[in-house]
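Morning run. Coffee first, then this:
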Amino acid sequence: MPVLAAPAPYGGTGVTPQPSASTTLSPMLAAPGASPPLAAMTSTQSGMGATSSAFSAPSTSSSALSVMQPPPGPPPSLSPMQPYKAATDKTLTSKQAKSGGFQPVGTQKVVNAKPIDEGEFRVSSNPTTSGHSSGYHESFAPTDTMRFLSNRKPNNDGTATLPPWNSPTVLPSYSGTKIIESNVKPVAEASDGARTDTARTILSVPNGGAAGHTGSSVKTTGQPAAHNVLRHQVMRTLQEPGVTSGVAGVLAGATTIMSMAPGTIASTAKNANQLKDRQARTQHETNRNDAKRKLDEHYEGLSPSEQAIVMKIAKQGMTDLNDNSRTLLPDRPHSPLRDPIGTPGAPISGGGYLSAVTTPAPPSTTFPVLPTSASAPVTSMSLTSPTTMPPVPTPQHPGNSFAPVVGTAHHAPLPSSASSTTPHGSATSAPPTASTTAAPVTTTATTPAAHTGVGAREIAMDITQSFRADRK
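And here it is:
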């Protein structure tokens, strides 16, 4: 039984010192639905880029350079982020708003290592104010993963042993693995909060694919592999020392955004133009951008050590997607904002990144590429060169408040930052030797993120709110 290898520390220098919210973040924290200025993701302040040249305009365009500069004058001051309250979340039913979660009772049973069935975590479809009904995509730990976790055996040394399991997913490969017992509560609560409407969900599939979620009216080919990416992220988080409620909530939000395919990729899914939530077809990338802004707010509330954990695991998830057209910002667990409109007439809205970014490559031993099917062995991916993302030109659209970048409307191919000695999922690569011996365990209190006053469930619900329609 393969056990998730402990990743090497990132870089050895920790997280880049963060600037105050009133400088770098002010353009990013615009009101949901409003298009931010292009400078929001092209700032050269230390909190948003690795070097002073990380976000430069195309050298061939002097006019493009001018529109990418921050506006003159002092930045606007920001009020502290208001704590999330389920009671005022219009995407929840009255029952959910009153209970403060989707399935808090079933989630607590998982925390207490009491076995649950599907109905204790999965939520039934319910009507929205848009005229359709929708169920939910569990975008951190899927229902089967929560059931798997609920059957674990707690040990006397602060660990727990995952149970034998029979399913066509990657979960059986984790049977016998030891996890950190104190991580279960924040991960389980974050998983209860991280949910998107199936009616507006088109999933990211490894190797650049897309699949509709059951209930989306989009072809679901590739959905199992997409969910395996989530299962791996949860298993990593359960084994990582230092996981707090803030870490778990932010990771659940970051994983959700990765799971929701960008518009350019979502449009390639078969029957994408039949996505059940009609409004989401034209708001898809706007919703993803809004979630990134909210994710950034919560990430800023974490300590440097918590941010380091989030970045490490987020990068592992992005690597599992194995898609050279996607990248994370150097010091944020999300990618740059994207053009919310994209190609006119595309099934799903959304275009390329709004800025260029250079991401320093982590050590080659930093993280493994995990299989996306139960039978695929673990392979190693070596990152040997920086990922340089060329500027993605976006056409001028009527009513688009994003400043255009001079060029054509086509996304330039991106250079690969990854190479491996064997193909992804190759049968010639031997999996690691199975072991049930846990490394020394460091337990941490699962306290809420310092500046929000909310826990893992609330953080996840807040970040994923834009992926749910208002309820009746």
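The two ends are 47 Å apart (CA to CA). Good start to the day.
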